[in-house]
Amino acid sequence: MEVQKLQAQQSIFSKILLSTIFAVMTGAAAQIKIPLPFSPVPVTGQTLVVLLSPLLIGRLSGVSQIIYVLVGIAGMPWFAGFKGGLSIVIGPTGGYLIGFVIASFVLGSIFEQKNRSSTSTLLWLAFANFGIIYAVGLLQLYWWFAIKGSHLTLIKLLSMGAIPFIPGDLTKILLAAGIYSIYKKLK
């Protein structure tokens, strides 16, 4: 009986450690930042980690993103541009951060169930990125501008928060799928 308790404790510890490692990786990837002069949303490397971690660690990736967001809210300067605090999460880019959490849990749940084909993997990654992260990000971006008294047209909203990011995100999706394919072969 003691062995089972020890194994359970080790399992919990390893899950917390793995989630923390991916939270740190997200924070590091956030520092790969390219500001866009026409948008408050920068190009960052975060989405690669957000999309890859569910493929490798399942639902724990959602926990890693919760850790990332909560520790960032607490003041750790690991949001894009070495920033931290609640103001980032309630600001123009906060919806993307919330989208990271949701997308990680959704993808993690799907990929915990069974291995997926390469085509299926690409489709799920695209859905998580464009369907979840973009949707939540664009909603908050629109809300943020509305609170400031500026109502964006759909075209303006998409040109600030989606269209410029599509080529980079497609690259990250392909990279995450490629790494996952190699991981499956080595497993």
Question: Quick one: biggest sheet?
Answer: 2 strands, antiparallel
Structural class: mainly alpha
- Count of the separate structural domains: 1
CATH architecture: Orthogonal Bundle
Shape: globular
Low-pLDDT stretches: none
Mean pLDDT over all positions? 92
How many helices? The count is 8
| Number of beta strands | 2
Give the CATH level 1 class: Mainly Alpha
N- to C-terminal distance: 30 Å
Question: What is the ordering of alpha helices and beta strands?
Answer: HEEHHHHHHH
Q: How large is the share of residues in beta strands?
A: under 5%
Describe this structure in words.
The chain is an all-alpha fold and about 190 residues long. The chain has one domain (about 1-185): Arp2/3 complex 21 kDa subunit ARPC3. It is about 75% helix and about 0% strand. It has 8 helices and 2 strands, in the order αββααααααα. The protein has helices spanning about 1-30, 45-55, 60-75, 85-90, 95-115, 120-145, 155-160, 165-185; strands at about 35, 45. Strands 1-2 form a two-stranded antiparallel ribbon. The chain is globular, with a radius of gyration of 17 Å. It starts with a helix and ends with a helix. About 40% of the residues are buried.
